[in-house]
Amino acid sequence: MLDGLKLTILISLATIALSVILGTVLAVMRNYGRGKLRLLNIIATAYIELFRCTPNVLWILLFRFAMKGSPLFISIFTFTLFTSAVVAEIIRGGLNSISKSQFESAASQGFNFAQTLIYIALPQTFRAIIPALMSQMTTIIKDTSFLKVVDIHEFMRNSSVVLGSATTLAQICLLYGFVALTYFALNFMLSCTVRSYHQRLKVM
Predict the structure, then answer these.
(1) What pLDDT digit, counting tens, does each position of 24-37 carry?
(2) What is the mean pLDDT of residues 68-91?
(3) How many CB atoms lie within 10 A of CB 57?
(4) Cα 78 to the chain's mean position, in Å?
(5) Where on the phi/psi map is residue 111: left (φ > 0), alpha (ψ -120 to 50), or beta?
(6) Where are the alpha helices (DSSP H) in 99-168?
(7) Which of 23, 33, 60, 181 could staple 88 via S-S, CB 3.0–4.6 A?
(8) What's 194's domain CATH number?
(9) 45-48 long-range CB contacts below 8 Å, 24 or more apart?
(10) pLDDT, tens digit, 9 for 90 and up, residues 82-134
(11) Would you tell me how many other CB atoms lie within 10 Å of the CB of residue 62?
């Protein structure tokens, strides 16, 4: 069970890190793909809507049986594709909160569009969306339990194996209690971190 927990945490951390990178690219494409770059907007919009409007377990099943390779890699790949669509919308919301005057001021100082994004817009965006990203992290941790259906040895799957050997009601209740408490502890710590960050933002 503890080996499964380690795998769950690894998949969750890798997913959120990679999703932030891909989500940022998608958010920029959707937000600023205009004129000659309109095609980028269309591609990003189609990608985001496709994954946001379909269940994650569908993609888990598809890629698990359609791709060859390490189950760990396939799991991270699938979760990253799905989560990036959600993260892209979170980041896009942060970008929309940046006033146009900041872009105009940066242009007057000789910054091009890319420099304005990298040095001005994105740092402010990530500072504002950290709570939302951490909340998404709790969703990823819980959703890794879907990997049980394709026999990935994450926490829920390994816990089910152990539960299969339980012979008494007390053992079953103890094991289920441990599983529930573990998920709760991980997500509660993240929730407390989000609340603490919110409080610091209010003070600042």
Answers:
(1) 999 999 998 888 88
(2) 92
(3) 15
(4) 11
(5) beta
(6) 100-108, 113-116, 122-143, 155-164
(7) 23
(8) 1.10.3720.10
(9) 47/85, 48/85, 48/88, 48/89
(10) 999 999 999 999 898 888 888 888 888 888 888 988 888 998 898 888 888 88
(11) 11
Calculate the alpha carbon distances from 87 to 184, 186, 197, 199 in Å.
Answer: 23, 20, 19, 23
What is the number of other CB atoms lying within 10 angstroms of the CB of residue 175?
A: 17
Task: Determine if the pTM surpasses 0.85.
Answer: yes
Neighbouring residues of 84: CB distance < 8 A, sequence distance ≥ 6: 18, 19, 22, 23, 26, 51
For the cut 70, the answer to whether the pLDDT of residue 201 exceeds it is no
In this structure, which amino acid lies at residue 146? Answer: F
| The two three-digit tokens of residue 193, written as one number | 């971190």
Q: How many domains does the chain have?
A: 1
User: Do residues 190 and 134 lie in contact, with contact meaning Cβ atoms separated by under 8 Å?
Assistant: yes
User: Is the Cβ–Cβ distance between 37 and 169 less than 8 Å?
Assistant: no
- pLDDT for 131-160, tens place per residue? 888 888 999 999 999 988 888 888 888 888
The pLDDT, as a whole number, for residue 66 is 87
| Residues spanned by the domain of 152 | 2-203
CA separation for the pair 59, 168 (Å, rounded): 37
